[in-house]
Amino acid sequence: SGAGTDCGSQSYPAGVATGTFTSISATGTPVFPLSLIDIDDDRATVALPFPFTFYGNAYNSIGVVSNGFAQLTGTSTAFTNGAIPSAGTPNDGLYPMWDDLAAILSTTTNVFPQVDGTAPNRTFTISWENLGQYSAPGGLLTPVGSNSFQAVLFEGSNNIEFRYGGIDAVSAPLPTATDTVTIGVENAAGTVAVSVDPATISPGNTAIAFDGAVSGNPCTPACDDIDFNNNEVFPEDQDVVDFFNVLAGGDCPECNDIDFNNNDVFPEDQDVIDFFNVLAGGTCPCGKMAKLSNF
C-alpha cells in the first residue's frame, strides 16, 4: 500500500451480543487429555479452521490456556491476571475470563474447541467448561466454584464474541480483597486493548461482542483468504488448481467465487495477480473498498 499510507485498523469496540452460551462438551474435542488428571496453568496450541485476522495480523493457530485466555502468539500461562493493555505477557490475546483457574478433568470439565457452519460463514468456539478458581489447601488441588464461558471467532468478519454461562469467579469469587478477573482483547505489543468491566457479565448468562471491522481510511485489504477451496488446508497446490479451474468456468461448489479481490470486476487479470500475491505472503493491494460484515 506504499509508505505512509493509512489503511485503517481494527479497534474491536465492545458491545452487547445476542449469542448465548451452550455447552459443547458432548461434541467438541477436549484440548487437554483426561490422562492429565487435572489442569492448572496448562496450555495447548490448536489449529484454526480458517485464517483469522486479529489487530491486522492473520493467524492459523491459537494457544489455549486453562487460565481463561487464549493467545494468537506467545506461550504465557500466567495465572495472575492484570490490567490490559500491558507490555508484560500475555499479549496478543483474547481474555474472556483471565483468572487463576484449575479443574479436575472429566468428560464435561475441560476446554473444548469446535467449528460450526459452512464456509465462508463458519465460527470457531473455544469453550472453557466447569473450571473452578485455584485452591489447594494442604497441597491438594480443590478448585472452588464453577465457571463456563466461550470465545467465538467469526470467519470473514473477524468478529469475536465472549459468551458466558455460570461464572462463580465473578458472582461468587474467592473471599480475598484482591480477587478479580480480566476481560477484553489486546494487541501483540501490549499497547492497545479493549477492557470490559467484569460487572458487565455478572451474574452470567450474557455475551459481549467485539467488532473486528477495519475502521479509519477505507483503503483496506479486501481480498479473500488463500484457502480458496475452503478445505482448511492452506496454502496448498490444490488451492491454485481449484482457482484456475473456477477461473476457466469449472465447477467447485465449496470454493470461493472468482472475484478474489472483491472489486466487483471478474474475471480479470488483477484477480490472478492478487491471488498469487497473497499466496506468496503479500497483502491485498490498497485502493479497493473492503467488504466488511457488521454484527
SSE arrangement:
Elements (H helix, E strand, L loop, with lengths): L8 E2 L3 E3 L21 E3 L2 E12 L2 E9 L3 E3 L21 E6 L2 E4 L5 E7 L6 E11 L10 E11 L5 E8 H4 L10 E5 L6 E3 L11 E4 L3 E2 L21 H11 L21 H11 L16
Antiparallel strand pairs: 1-16, 2-15, 3-8, 4-5, 5-6, 6-7, 7-13, 8-10, 9-10, 10-11, 11-12, 12-15, 13-14
Salient structural properties:
295 residues, mainly beta, eight-stranded antiparallel beta sheet, six-stranded antiparallel beta sheet, 3 helices
In short:
The protein is mostly beta strands and 295 residues long.
Q: Could you explain how this protein is built, in words?
A:
The chain has 295 residues and is mainly beta. It has 3 helices and 16 strands. The protein has helices spanning 168-171, 237-247, 269-279; strands at 9-10, 14-16, 38-40, 43-54, 57-65, 69-71, 93-98, 101-104, 110-116, 123-133, 144-154, 160-167, 182-186, 193-195, 207-210, 214-215. It is elongated. Strands 2, 3, 8, 9, 10, 11, 12 and 15 form an 8-stranded antiparallel β-sheet that branches. A 6-stranded antiparallel β-sheet has the order 4-5-6-7-13-14, with no helix packed on it.
